[in-house]
Amino acid sequence: MNTNKKLFTFLMLPLILFSQKEIKKVAQWTTHEINLTATDKYENPYADVDVWAVYTNQNGDSLKRPAFWSGENNWKLRFSPPDANISWSWKTFSSNRNDTGLNGKKGTFESIPYKGNNRLIKNGLLKMSAGHRNVVHQSGRSFLIVGDTPWALPFRATKEQAEAYAKDRHEKGFNTALLMTLQPDINAKGPNVRNVEQGFNRAFKDLSDGHINEVNPEYFDYLDKIVAILIDHEIVPVYQPVFHGFGWKGLQVLGSKIEPQEYVRYTKYLLARYGSNPAFWLIAADHDGNDPGVKESGIMLQDWDCYQQPTGLHYNPCDDFVAEWATNDPSKHCMHHNKTYQKEQWLDFQWAQTGHGGDHQYHKVERMYDNLPTKAVANGESTYEGMNNGENGLGWWQGEEAWMQLMHGGTMGVVYGAAALWQWKISANEEGWGEWADQPLSWREAMRLEGSKYVGLVGKILGEIDITDIEKRWDLANGEPLLAKEGSLYLSFLPNGGAITIENLPKNLNYRWINPKTGETKLSGIGREKTFKAPDENAWVLLISE
C-alpha cells in the first residue's frame, strides 16, 4: 500500500509542479493582458459586439473591465490588480452569448508586489482626493498636475520623437500630457503617414465622412507604443476622445456634430485600451461641455471605470460673455460660466481656458474654486508660448502664470503649452495655421522654449510636498497669495518679493525661500515670527512646513 502511494506521488509530481508553474504572476498596478479569439464572424467587430470581464479576488471583491477589438477575430482585456499577494479569477461575457470564443472564458492569476522604480506604477492609478480639490494615487501619494499640451502627438509623432519629447519633459518636471487621441478635423487633408508635412495617421477610416465607426487597429497599436513611452517616463496621458472647439487646424471638428452613441462607444474603447494605466479622461474640450455624447460618456465612465480615474471638462475661453469670434456662431457655446454639469457625480474636475492673447487672467479659477459642489480646478489652457507669430506668453510669463493660477485656486495643478509644439509641426515652415496660432518653429524647437523650464520647476519644487486638499487662504495673509493646510503647510508665491504676514501660524515650522526660476533655496530656517521677508524684489516662493 505504501509502495503504491509513493509510486502515485512520483508519477503525479511533474503534473503538480507543472500546474504550479502555470499560475500567472502579475505585479500590482501592472497590466495583465488577456487575448480572446471570436468563433463568430462580425461585419464590424468594433461596433457589433460588446465584450467584458468580471475579475474577482479571493476576498470576493469584483471589478469589471471592458474589452476592445484589436483586429481580425481578436479582442483584448487589460486589467491592473489593485493589490498584492491575492488570487484572482476572471470570466468573460459577451453581448453575443453564442460566441464561445468571447463569452464564458475563464482564468486565474496571482497578484504580487511591484518591485520596479516607476513612481506612477509604484503608487497606483489615480483618483480624486477626499476633499475633491486634488488628485492622488491609490497609495494616497499626492499628484499635482504639471501638464503639457502636445495635443497632436498621437497622430503625428514617431516613437523616436515621442521618446525625445518624454525625456525632455520628464527631466524638466512635467508629469502629464494632454492628447487629442485622434485628428478631429473632418476637412483636414494630407498623407496618411507620420513625420511628413501635412501628414497625419488616421484613427478611423470614416472620420472625414463625419463618423467614427470604422476603426483602424494599426493606428492604436502604434499609439499603444507612444503611451508606453509616456508612462515609462512617468507622464500620465490625458485622453481627449474627439475635440469640440478649434481642433487641429480649425477645419470643422467632428466632436460638436458627432452621433452621441459613436462618441460614447469610442470613449469606452479608450477606457478598455488605456484604462489599466494611469489616466485622465477629458471628455469635453474647448467648448461648454454640452456636446453630443459628453454627458453620456461621463455616466458610462462612472459605470465602467472600475478604478474611477479622474473625469473632467475643458471649457473654451468665453464663459460669461460672447467672444467676438463667436458673435454670429451659436455653435461656439459661450455663456457656460465654466460650471457645466457642476452637480453631476461623474464630474471630477473642471479646467478653464483664458485664451491666447497674452493676458494674465485669474478670475476664472477664482470663481471655479468657489463653485459648489466642489470640483478640482485648474487653468487648462493659458496663452501658449509663442502664440501670435512668436510674440505672446514668452519666457518667464509662463512661470508667473503657472504660480499665480495655482495661488488663485487652481490647486489641481498647472498646464503649459507652446505654439508649434501643440500642432506637432514637422518643420518651422509647415503651413496650415493662422498667425494667431503659430510661430516659425518645428515641434522640436518649440519643445526647447524657455517658458517650459519655469512651469516644469513647479513640479520639481512641489513634487515631494503633500499638497492634498490644500486650500486658498489669502484671508490668513491680509490678501497676499497663500495656500494652506492650516497648522502644517503654507505655500506662497510673491511675484515681486516683499513680505508676507501669516496669521495663526504655529511657531517652529520650517521655512524656505525658493527661487522659482532656478529651483534653488536662498534662505531657510525655523520660523519664530509670523512675518517673512523675501530675499529681494524678484519673484520668490515661500514654503513653510513641519
TrEMBL record:
Residues 25-94 form the DUF5060 domain. It holds the Pfam family Apiosidase. InterPro entries: Apiosidase-like_cat_dom, DUF5060, Ig-like_fold. Residues 130-467 form the Apiosidase-like catalytic domain. This is Collagen-binding domain of a collagenase.
